[in-house]
Design a protein that fits this description.
This protein is α/β, with parallel strands linked by helices. The chain folds into 2 domains: 129 residues, Transcription Regulator spoIIAA; 143 residues, no CATH class. Helix content is 49%, strand content 8%. The protein contains 13 helices and 8 strands. Helix 1 runs parallel beside helix 3 and helix 9 runs antiparallel to helix 10. The longest helix is centred in the middle third of the chain and has 22 residues. It starts with a strand and ends with a strand. The relative contact order is 0.08.
């Protein structure tokens, strides 16, 4: 079995000489992709295969190439996206990048997923591995898609009876869909890898349920970037307009960093601000 594939000649555009694919099959279904119509098929999410022993095989190949001085750029994900959602569980791309760093091979990555941000930090890609990717456009496109998906689901699950009830129980000027907590929990779980930028967009929408989803996402991913959580908390705490969001920020938003950043959280408490929240007692920050 070979994981590291040697190209017949160096790519004239990307300057790559090798390619690796942690997975077979792809769910992106890009219209411009060269594998459409090939043996890899189209929209093959259901038939995706994982190369479970890829890291073991790859290390042997990299070791052999490095001993001979046969270095060259490696394209990661030439026939599939290196950051399909399966990567969150299997972490094969993450493991490959660590091996490339170990054996000093430069890489080229093209992806539509913001999961690459995980490896930019953990593998220090920007310092010892050269990576090129159209990340900004990927983030914007993905966030736009995710926001529309979330809003569509909220609209589909909206209940007029709940809207009337929520307006009584959670007075304020915010938009209310009338969607119950179990649905919001499901959405937060589904979009937990949507990034801090998605959280900001959800919050800025101003809708009650979207802000609650934003809080729940941060509860799940906050430990990945504690300083960003603290910055967002300072920003969001000045924009509270109802007790439900107030409770969410106070009890859920900082949960992921409570143990690791106690001093910073205590400092926030020391700089607390008392706000008057419609339909409740004063909210203390």
């Amino acid at each position: 079995m070979s994981v590291l594939n040697k190209q017949k000649q160096r790519d004239s555009w990307f300057l790559t000489e090798y390619s690796v694919n942690a997975y077979e099959g792809c769910s992106c279904n890009c219209l411009y992709c060269y594998i459409r119509g090939s043996k890899y098929g189209e929209n093959m999410d259901h038939g995706l295969a994982v190369k479970s022993n890829a890291l073991e095989v790859l290390e042997k190949q990299l070791q052999a190439r490095s001993k001979k001085g046969q270095y060259g750029f490696i394209v990661v994900g030439s026939a599939t996206d290196a950051y399909l959602y399966h990567e969150e569980e299997w972490k094969l791309t993450e493991g490959m990048l660590k091996l490339f760093l170990k054996y000093r091979f430069p890489v080229f990555i093209s992806t539509k997923s913001i999961l690459i941000l995980r490896d930019v930090k953990t593998s220090r890609l920007g310092t010892r591995i050269s990576v090129k990717y159209n990340l900004k456009m990927a983030i914007l496109n993905l966030m736009s898609k995710q926001i529309k998906e979330i809003q569509s689901i909220l609209n589909d699950r909206a209940d007029k009876g709940n809207i009337n009830l929520f307006q009584i129980m959670v007075p304020g000027k915010q938009k209310i869909y009338g969607v119950k907590t179990p649905v919001l929990n499901e959405l937060a779980k589904k979009y937990k890898e949507g990034s801090f930028d998605l959280v900001e967009q959800l919050w800025n929408s101003g809708a009650l349920e979207e802000r609650i989803i934003a809080i729940k996402i941060i509860e799940k991913i906050g430990k990945n970037d504690p300083l960003r959580v603290l910055a967002l908390f300072k920003k969001f705490s000045k924009q509270i307009d109802n007790w439900a969001v107030c409770d969410g920020l106070g009890m859920q938003f900082l949960r992921g960093i409570v143990k690791s950043h106690q001093e910073e959280i205590f400092d926030l408490a020391g700089d607390s601000i008392i706000q008057k929240i419609p339909g409740s007692e004063d909210c203390l920050w």
